[in-house]
Design a protein that fits this description.
The protein is α+β, with helices and mostly antiparallel strands and 59 residues long. The chain is built from two helices and two strands.
Length: 59
């Protein structure tokens, strides 16, 4: 299981305000180890896209 956790931090005090979003998923075992195909996937299907969607959900 993989988890993207997003913490909210106060910019002035650097204190953690709390967990504001969390996405959990499990990689498909059929595509496990297919590094060569990752570069050809649409951005929306990549794990890094989860950071974009989390940022959009917070705004």
């Amino acid at each position: 299981m993989l988890i993207h956790s997003i913490l909210m931090v106060d910019a002035d005090s650097n204190k953690t305000l709390g967990l504001i979003e969390q996405n959990r998923w499990v990689r498909d075992t059929d595509t496990f180890g297919c590094r060569k195909t990752r570069a050809n996937r649409p951005f929306e299907e990549k794990e890094s896209y989860k950071w974009i969607t989390a940022s959009e959900n917070m705004s």
